[in-house]
């Protein structure tokens, strides 16, 4: 029996799952990309993002773990917005899950899509702040 190998792009789309959020005829290209590509990747990679953030916070002298919940929210936002190396690392985790056609679409409007990507990631991490305990 012959089994056709899936392409990398087919495999990526299969493991990531379907769109998250509604897409309408009136949706902009950015909204479509966000819901068809970015959101499913953020959900799929969620556990990795949690671990990456824990590691980042630990390497920053662990100050994060001593903060009040409200200050932890600010810390998450500030870390992702201001630490360029950290932000680029997070972007790489997302971009590495793009198909070739998604990447080609992404580079047409990377600046706006990066903003959407990081804002969604910030909200995702903030909503899980209770998972951030100091790494043992």
Automatic annotation (TrEMBL):
<protein>
    <recommendedName>
        <fullName>Glyoxalase</fullName>
    </recommendedName>
</protein>
């Amino acid at each position: 029996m012959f089994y056709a190998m899936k392409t990398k792009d087919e495999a990526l789309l299969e493991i990531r799952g379907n769109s998250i959020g509604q897409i309408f005829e009136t949706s902009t290209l950015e909204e479509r990309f966000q819901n068809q590509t970015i959101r499913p990747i953020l959900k799929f990679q969620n556990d990795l993002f949690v671990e990456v953030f824990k590691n980042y916070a630990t390497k920053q002298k662990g100050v994060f773990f001593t903060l009040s919940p409200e200050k932890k929210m600010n810390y998450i936002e500030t870390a992702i917005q201001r630490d360029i190396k950290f932000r680029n690392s997070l972007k790489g985790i997302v971009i590495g899950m793009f198909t070739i056609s998604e990447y080609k679409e992404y580079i047409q409007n990377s600046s706006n899509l990066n903003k959407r990507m990081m804002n969604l990631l910030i909200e995702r991490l903030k909503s899980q702040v209770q998972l951030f305990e100091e790494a043992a």
